[in-house]
Amino acid sequence: MKKLFGLFLSLITVFALFACGNNEPVDPDPDPDPGKTYYTISYYEGDQVIGTERVEEGKKGLYTVDGYFVVTDFYTSAQGLADEDKDAKWDKDSAINANVNLYAKYIRNKLVGGDTHTNYASFSLSPSNFNPLTYKSTSDAVPHDYTTNSFYEYAYNEDGTGFTLEPVMAAADPVDVTAQYAALEGDPYGLLDKFEEDEAKIGYAFRIALNPDAKWENGDAITADDYIYTMRTLLDGRYNNYRASNYYQGNSAIFGAKDYFYSGKTGVGSAHLAFEHYSEEDDADLTFVWDSTSEATGFLEWLVGTYGSYIGTTNYPTMRDLLVKGFGMTLTAEDDVYASMNGHTLAEIKADATMKAAWDELIGAWKTKDDEELDFFTAEYSMPEFDFDHVGIKKVDNYTLDIVYTSQLLGFYQKYSIGLPLVKESLYEASLKQDAVTGAWSSTYGTSTSTYMSYGPYKFTRYIVDQVMEFARNENWFGYTEKYASKYGTFVREVDGATVHQYETTNIVLNYVPNISTREQMFLSGMLDTFGMNKAYFDTYGQSRRKYNATGAATYYGIVLSDYDSLVEREATLNGKTYSEEDYNGANEQYNKTILTVKEFRQALCYALDRRSLITNLYPGGSPAISLFSDLIIADPENGTAFNSFDSTKEAICEFWGVSYGEGEDFATLDEAYNAITGYDMTTAKQLVDVAVDKAIAAGLMGQNTIVRIDYCAANDSETEQLWYNTFKDSFDTLFKGTKLEGKFQFDYNTNLGSDFGGAIQSGKADTAWGFGWSGGELDPYDLFQVYVDAAAGADEPYQYDMWIDRSGEDYTIELTLDLGDGAQDYEYTVYEWYQILNGQSDDLPNWRFGKVADSVRAQVLAALEGAVLNDYTTIPMMNQGSVQLLSYKLNYGKEEYMFGMGFGGIRYLTYNFTDGEWAAYVAQQGGVLNYK
Amino acid sequence: MYLFKYILKRIGLMLFTFIIIMTMCFILIKMLPLPNPKVFGQDEKIIAMQRELLGYNKPIIIQLFIYIKSIIVNGNWGVGEQIYTGQFVADIFKQKLPATMLVNVYAMIVSVPIGLALGIYAAVRKNKWQDHVISTGVMIFVSVPSYVYAFLVQYIFCFKLQWFDFIMNPSSTFSEYLSWTTFKSLIPAVMSLSFGTIASFTRYTRAELTEVLTSDFMLLARTKGLTRTQATIRHALRNAMVPIFPMIIGEFIGILSGSLIIEGIFSIPGVGGLYISAINSQDYNFFMLLTAFYTFIGLAAGILVDISYGIIDPRIRMGAR
């Protein structure tokens, strides 16, 4: 027993010794070798020494004074510095053979007590592989935000109202050299086929002047060779780099990239890989695929790539169903016939009468151009050898690259799409490892600080997976040099109008803190600079002045059924009767639903929603929505102007909400009027109810004592759904008080329709459903507008929720006066036709999509269309998507409003009210816990 | 000699069992469908080609041979495909295991002596007020889950009193892990883990010791002239330790498995969530490595516990006929 206790005591002692073993303070600057001679370089700012450096005799100085400041030049006298006297300028290559006093020229004007500005943030999902060629998740890409730059990056536009894309790793805007490449003998890039004979040859090939000042963190210059090496490695088929397809498919596909990636590869895949053209001679090599789980055929790849697979859904359980219902094809052969063809070669299919008939029918309905027979087959492919020299990325000189794309890039989308990754060749080569057993390659690049090299404003100083990421200023980043002072120097901070520096942050520390309550406590203790809240924290911090709302792209809206036939049918069911629309007389019925066909009634529902209250109760991260698009939606991507910023948009919204401005009106200016809209007007709503009731009675839709019963359609009977229902019910109960419907309105809670409640309201099986929204399309609201006007779009799940309304009908004709360059003229089209025009799908006013028409004109048209949709009051905007965070007192954002592309300004515009030392003292002074309530 | 043969036999059986379990797991896991490689905007064929290269499309038995060969030839347990993508799974595991081990070792060092001491004290003071106080505390700490303490400990000691860090001090080297800073940063987690373990040991020790203390041989020991303390330490405690010691060893085995919730609250980058993540994300290489590790540890622990009986109580002879 004694031994046992002895063992425990020993263990305790050993661990205690280990635990205390590393408690000795470490001298960060150990004594130099006593056998050598050292001199001191003293750095001065005015009369004050702001730093020193010990240098071995005969060696060069490192010239690093403070991480916060970047010294561009040194002068041996203060006067020399003031005059920028060339004779007094210190040569940094000089060997140090005596003590030296140097006066430093900074691009930062003010040294803040020699202290640092550290940005403390947290992450709950650690990056584990930030190799630009193989990373997978968005969390893996977090280090790229700090350590890399792109050719073109978002920056605030001149007046700060939007964004622009400015050259960063590029020296200038791209130069279109398409004509030059199209003129090459033999048209090696296949450009001539892409143009009509007399069409301007633009948009495919670009010359990028590289920023000659760009350097790796070790000071090596970044040249065209680095980009070429990276792309050659990325697209090397041996490595199967996950990010290769970023550059060989989609809008940014580089010519020949896919051919090079697949060069020499063999396997079984889409028949298009094996054969360029269909020939009956190859029938025996083509294997038919009727298996929706396979994505090897051209058809399935296209289907999945374009829509995600619909097959297997309720509406399209089989491929045949998809082709017949989704594509409108006529196929008489049953699905089992096609299923029996699965796995057979085309030669075998043609040899069997039944299968041949089915195949002939299928291809007859499907084929619109040559070689589409290949769409349904797989084949063994052996890809031809393709040399990297034929890939559309060319080094012109050390600092110039040409890139040839397979898709046309025009206007804003040039700078938006042009970009290349970068890896440091020496590190990457060392990181590659081939498995001796399987022959598979792997790379450890970007898995530690030693296997990664920065070329952005910050460099890695520490990385431990699932623990911490630390970054410090990359002193070799060109942006800190004086040459770029005008670009990356000062800016006017919005919150107080102060002129402050960009990139004030000297260090960034991101800690792994997966637990939200831990994050909250750390934030309150001053250890984190932001705290992203969920709903549970809104009661506590909802009124904080340090609360920042980040707007999302989606606008959530409700749908109100207004289709007469559907409502009559639903009302009949409710009253336990069966009658046709012709027999219908609502005045005799106990319950009514058809009042929803009266526009004033729907308008009253819309006005009765106190959107601010909805936000508080239902979605504290969001913001009230008064239109179809959130403030994040950009209508003019060239300068980042939000659609809601255009006067034409504001006017349409003001008109919709009945808010006027000008002399004698409630508001003096358009902006005042627009900003005053809350979407809540209970007084008018009540008046509208009475008007609607009168109209309904007059039209025979209901009697004096009829009870209006409409339902709230929910996906399930969850606590959240009940909260939503009760919130709407409270609004509507308030609405009907004191109106002709007081005591005669019933709002039913309907959970019978399950998760397809969207489909239910589309097919007239529900009266109201709330909470629809669309994300994506942040840069293209013209395209996004499809969801409001195109009932046919969306195949399995149509996009348009009020799809009983046909906005291509004459009732939806809109006349607009537009100046398209030849003077103001009137143009008249239906809403749907205008939508087609906006998206370049009309022959009447062609080619609007690609910048032939100013975005202000397109926005004007879209505003009119938005007004037309809103004016139906079947689509009722409620709230905009968003998230909320608290910002530490330590920091200020560059802008107070969240903006697409810029956020609140990012690390570039993050500024500090305290240095790290001052902040620690401040937090201590506050008792260690800060108050953000 | 009997014991040596017994151990050899057990090790042989252990390896046999280990191979059977691993083979079964490998075959079963390979019979499951691979995670869908589809990601919007990416060419899923890249993943398919890599899988082809790694032999994922070969017959399972061939895959098993490739797997074993890779481990033997390269020490390569594969790379993560769904989590820690592209990273060698063994490297990740090695990086994450020390944090889990450290916090659990500290917790054991704290909880075993305290638990035993309180248990002994409660047994000796049976039915006195000291026993009632300890037993009540035991009931509370056994009943309440450790993450509840974790939140309380963090709130009181880290947030309000500011005695300790909220999260574990980032560590990657041996000296960093064993530094005072890291130790101090782990104290809240150690406290949270220890409360339940202390209570558990206290209860078990008290129960065993109470039973032994009322045995006839204890009366004999006292009649021989031994003091109560002598009789308790020399005879009672030794007998009571026969079932308790394997429990301690079992707790040490638990050192290697992390606590998902505690590690989450104190940001300890351990292996607590790794198994669950591997299963949820269908990362089969991680699953196999973790299965191999914990299976081996479990089997080895079984042998260790069995042998420990003989060490605690010489009357128990392992392998003797």
What is this entry, summarized?
Helix content of chain A is about 30%, strand content about 20%. Chain A is α+β, with helices and mostly antiparallel strands and about 950 residues long.
What does this molecule look like?
The complex is a heterodimer of chains A (933) and B (321). Chain A has 31 helices and 35 strands. By secondary structure, chain A is of the alpha+beta class. In chain A, strands 22, 23, 24, 25, 28, 29, 30 and 33 form an eight-stranded mixed sheet that branches. Chain A has a four-stranded mixed sheet with strand order 2-1-4-3. Chain A has a four-stranded mixed sheet with strand order 5-21-18-17. In chain A, helix 10 (335-341) packs across helix 12 (353-366). Chain A is globular, with a radius of gyration of 33 Å. Residues 1-31, 66-70 and 107-114 of chain A have low confidence and may be disordered. Chain B is built from 13 helices and no strands. The relative contact order of chain B is 0.15. The chains are: A alpha+beta (933), B mainly alpha (321). Chains A and B meet through helix 1 and helix 16 of A and helix 2, helix 3, helix 4, helix 6 and helix 8 of B.
Fold topology:
The complex is a heterodimer of chains A (933) and B (321).
Chain A: H1 2-21, E1 38-45, E2 48-56, E3 71-75, H2 78-83, E4 100-106, E5 118-123, H3 142-147, E6 152-156, E7 163-167, E8 175-176, H4 178-182, E9 205-209, H5 224-234, H6 257-262, E10 266-270, H7 271-274, E11 287-288, H8 298-307, H9 319-326, H10 335-341, H11 346-351, H12 353-366, E12 377-382, E13 393-397, E14 400-404, H13 412-417, H14 425-431, E15 432-434, E16 441-443, E17 458-464, E18 468-473, H15 485-488, E19 490-492, E20 499-501, E21 507-512, H16 516-524, E22 530-533, H17 538-541, E23 547-560, H18 564-574, E24 591-592, H19 599-607, H20 611-618, E25 623-624, E26 634-636, E27 641-642, H21 647-657, H22 670-675, H23 682-698, E28 707-713, H24 719-736, E29 745-750, H25 757-762, E30 768-772, H26 781-784, H27 786-789, E31 813-819, E32 824-830, H28 831-838, H29 848-852, H30 855-870, E33 875-887, E34 891-892, E35 911-912, H31 916-925
Parallel strand pairs in A: 1-4, 5-21, 24-28, 28-29, 28-30
Antiparallel strand pairs in A: 1-2, 3-4, 6-7, 8-9, 9-14, 10-12, 11-12, 13-14, 15-16, 17-18, 18-21, 19-20, 22-33, 23-30, 23-33, 25-33, 26-27, 31-32, 34-35
Chain B: H1 2-31, H2 44-53, H3 60-74, H4 89-124, H5 129-143, H6 146-160, H7 174-177, H8 180-213, H9 216-223, H10 228-254, H11 260-265, H12 274-280, H13 284-312
